[in-house]
Amino acid sequence: MEYERHRVKVENIFEGPMDLLVHLIQKNEVDIYDIPIEKITAEFLDCLEWMKRMNIDVAGDFLVMAATLTQIKSRTLLPPAPRRGEEEEEDPRMEIVRPVLEYMRIKSAAEKLGARSLLGADTFARPLADFGEAGAGGMTAGEEMLRIGLFELIDAFQKILDKNPDEPPVSLAPEGMSLKDKISRIIDVLEVRESVSFDEMFSGERDRKDMILTFLAILEMVKMGILRVVQGPESGAIRLFYI
What parts of the sequence cross the membrane (predicted)? Predict the structure, then answer.
C-alpha cells in the first residue's frame, strides 16, 4: 500500500515534543504541579509509537523528551536519598513542570495556563455564520473556529479508527491508490464545497489502510500549505478548508 512507502515529517511543520506534553496534560485535565508522570509518560510513548506506525517521522527532540520523562518516572519510583539536616529533596517532576509552565506562558500569554496547541503560527478565527448553516458540520451557530494542533487531529483520527477496528474482507479502495491520488480527491471535493468536516472525509472508506492514506494526505496538504484545519472550541467539530 502506498501509505507504507510514504513518510510525513512533522519537524518544523507541526509541533514539537513540548506541544505533545502540554496536549496530554490538558487532555487528562491534571494539575500541572501534580503530573501523574507514569500515566503521561506512557501516553507520550504510545503517541510516538502510533506516529511511527502511521509512517509519521518524529524529530529527535521527541526521543529526548521521551527519555527525560522515563528518567523522571524512574526517579519518582525510587525511595528518597537520605539527606543531611531537614532539607527536603525536590520533587523530580519539577524538572519538567518548570519548562512546561514557561512554554505555556510563551505559547499563549493571553490564555495563561489554558494555552491551546496551534497547527500554525497564527490563530484563524472566523464566525460560523460566515459559512452558512449547511456547512456547520456539528458546530454551534455563531461559534468561531480556531486552527487546531497535530495532536488534536491525531486524537480525532484515532477515534475514527476505533470505530473501524477490524479490516473488512474486501477493500473498496481502488487498486494502486497513491498519496497523490488521495490529495487530488480531497482537492476535488473541496473545490466543489467550501469546507468538509474531518469525519466526512473518512465516511465513504471502509478499508483501514485507505483511511490511513487519507489521513497522511491531509497532513501532507497541511505541510504544503494548501489545507487549513480548524475546530469549533465549543462543539469540538473539525473542518477542512482548501486554501
Answer: none
Domains identified in the chain, total number: 2
Tell me, yes or no, whether 122 lies in a domain: no
Instruction: Report which residue type is found at 39.
Output: K
Domain membership of residue 3 (yes or no) is no
d(CA 179, CA 197) in angstroms, rounded, equals 20
Domain membership of residue 97 as a residue range: 17-78+92-115
Q: What is the CATH number of the domain that holds 217?
A: 1.10.10.580
Cα distance between residue 204 and residue 163, in whole Å: 13
Q: Residue 232 and residue 145: Cα distance in Å, rounded?
A: 5
Q: Are 42 and 103 part of one and the same domain?
A: yes
Residue 59 identity (one-letter amino acid): A
Q: Is residue 60 part of a domain?
A: yes
What are 60-116's pLDDT values in tens digits? Answer: 889 999 999 999 999 988 876 666 655 667 889 999 999 999 988 887 664 544 444
pLDDT tens across 162-219, in order?
887 655 444 444 456 788 999 999 999 999 988 899 999 998 776 788 888 999 999 9
CA distance 65 to 7: 22
Q: Please give the Cα distance from 74 to 19 (Å, whole number).
A: 23
Residue 2 counted as domain residue: no
pTM: 0.72
Report yes or no: 21 and 40 within 8 Å, Cβ to Cβ.
Answer: yes
Q: From the centroid of its chain, how far is CA 42?
A: 16
